[in-house]
Amino acid sequence: MKRLDKLKHILEKSGKFPYLITDMSDIFYISNFTGSTAYIFLTEKDNIFVTDGRYEVQSREELDDSWSIKIVSSYPDFLSDMIKKYKRVFVTESMGLGLYNHLIKDVELLIDQKNEISLLRAIKDEEEIKHIRKAYKIASLALENSLKVFKFGETERCWAAYLEYQMKVNGANRESFDTIIASGYRGALPHGVASDKIIEPENPVIIDYGADCRYVSDITRMIYNGKEREILDNLEIISDTVDLAIQHIKPGIKCHEIYDLSKKYLARYGLDVYFNHGLGHSLGIDVHEKPVLNAKDNTIIEENMIFTIEPGVYFPDKYGIRIEETVLVKKNGCEILSSMLKDRYFKI
Amino acid sequence: MKRLDKLKHILEKSGKFPYLITDMSDIFYISNFTGSTAYIFLTEKDNIFVTDGRYEVQSREELDDSWSIKIVSSYPDFLSDMIKKYKRVFVTESMGLGLYNHLIKDVELLIDQKNEISLLRAIKDEEEIKHIRKAYKIASLALENSLKVFKFGETERCWAAYLEYQMKVNGANRESFDTIIASGYRGALPHGVASDKIIEPENPVIIDYGADCRYVSDITRMIYNGKEREILDNLEIISDTVDLAIQHIKPGIKCHEIYDLSKKYLARYGLDVYFNHGLGHSLGIDVHEKPVLNAKDNTIIEENMIFTIEPGVYFPDKYGIRIEETVLVKKNGCEILSSMLKDRYFKI
């Protein structure tokens, strides 16, 4: 069934017509539109797609004939006129507060707390899995090519620039997020994006990056040429934590259970206190989708969900270790999507 | 005066305490914090900065001692507790609807329609102008280097990848936005980001790109090796339209007047109907800031505002022309920030 039909079926069953969609990833998911500004308004009968003059040609190319396309010069005015005839309209939390306050003068706006589109997006279809595999292939190839030219004595920024260049010439539209190349003490910053710091031969280096090809990839690998026992041990423990999570992920288990067992495993080594973020997240069109593998998420894992698994430990002013794989949940377990990069840490 | 002090002075005068800031560019502007998640809460007495464990080290490094830093594990819970003791709190339109609906249970939320921070940000200070100059320098250098290696017969994606690589190795954190390399018929898409289309020798090519170095640049240049009279004439006319706007921009004139005279100039040649977007926008921390040069913006231009000037004409299925300079408004006119790239269109 087409995604639009699936969504309309759900909205009909749950009595959520009319429904105004404002999130650009939701809009791409439902309509295939890849531009930067548009709105979708769904009623029992109509599928209205609203965009502006910049996207007239593009929207006619990308949308099929399920849609009635409106080219407008003022979004607030057009949307206001369009929804006025209804008593109440369902919207999602991603709607901008400016528009919300403009429209609420005309009509009651009900926020769909359940977020039906996000629930739909959590279970990937075949087409999506194909695109995600491609994003992992491109990212893996880019790191392999980069490892051939990465040299100590260069800046984190230079490594990141080259890795991103490699992703793009191999087909990525952009990086999934600002590439993290965090070496030595900067590794202790879980979000330490590439800086002007020189990468020294004894530094452990966290490389957390991904390719955005409409669907994204997200991978973390490490480089460590040194011989410090503690660092080598921690690399092994973090890698084992990834494996433990991978062994347990399957349909029926709850998200927080995977987080809990990883945290517990790290506690054996006294490392749980240095692990200060979630274990992983879903991804697809966006890098961070729901559900997530953290202490609070009670979602039951289902087939065709996709999760990153990225435990890390951070020692302020010293160094950090993180390794990240991504899995596709299958009937009886999961498949590792990031396995093209067999090694989890490298010497260069 | 420090930006924080300036803002607090304005909030005091306008009676807008307490004030909750949620936009990350606003937060960077006020506090110097460069991470991805934080909130600022200003009262007469206190300057509270709220972030999570990932940014503990970083926030202490980046913020000065004006701030009381709170590291929290749940933003909604902490913010809810913090603002509960007030009757009403001012917020900006950029606040997420989810948080808005969570907090409005505890306290009245008033949206600052005037958006005091955005008004402050429109007038750049010396420090900001220095950073913006750097972003233009890096972008200009990157295009100069790229022009030496760009070849016809390659894809738009490859050109974009190389240009972005050049910006990054020269110091950019990322591209300001997805690089537009739109050749031949794709030039008619005003937002035609680089695709897998091969660039042919007879194609006019729009290159619209910029470097984000905390502050951004935004430049459009064209490549045209062909000899079609119509295209060469339109290049001249668009370049003249840019010059006309530059001649008129100065303190005291209204934004829409600059747009109007450009549109009128294009009408002389019957080209106004092919010019379907605004003439330009402010930029700084973000690529699109206010005020903007369009038909509706009544803002009076002031010294130290910065505007892009980017007229374009688009002929569906044929080609497009756009040229973009950026100006810093001075006492009696303006300075062109993008002038390092002297030529507006190139042969390669």
Jot down its keywords:
homodimer, 348 residues, alpha+beta, Creatine Amidinohydrolase, Chain A, domain 1, Creatine Amidinohydrolase, 4-stranded mixed sheet, 10 helices, 20 strands
Task: Explain this structure.
Two copies of one chain form a homodimer. Chain A is globular and about 70 Å long. The first copy, chain A, is built from ten helices and 20 strands. Helix content of chain A is 34%, strand content 23%. Chain A folds into two domains: 118 residues, Creatine Amidinohydrolase, Chain A, domain 1 (3-Layer(aba) Sandwich); 224 residues, Creatinase/methionine aminopeptidase superfamily (Creatine Amidinohydrolase, Alpha-Beta Complex). The mean pLDDT of chain A is 96. In chain A, β13 and β14 form a beta hairpin. By secondary structure, chain A is an alpha+beta fold. Chain A starts with a helix and ends with a strand. In chain A, α7 packs across α8 and α9 packs antiparallel against α10. In chain A, the strands form six sheets. A six-stranded mixed β-sheet of chain A has the order 4-3-2-1-5-6, with helices on both faces. In chain A, strands 8-9-12-20 form a four-stranded mixed β-sheet, with helices on one face. A three-stranded antiparallel β-sheet of chain A has the order 7-10-11, covered by helices on one side.
SSE layout:
2 copies of one chain form a homodimer.
Chain A: H1 3-13, E1 19-21, H2 24-31, E2 39-42, E3 47-52, H3 56-62, E4 68-72, H4 75-83, E5 88-91, H5 97-103, E6 108-111, H6 116-122, H7 126-147, H8 156-169, E7 174-175, E8 180-183, E9 205-209, E10 211-213, E11 215-216, E12 219-223, H9 229-248, H10 255-268, E13 280-282, E14 289-293, E15 306-309, E16 312-315, E17 319-322, E18 325-330, E19 333-336, E20 345-346
Helix pairs in contact in A: 7-8, 9-10
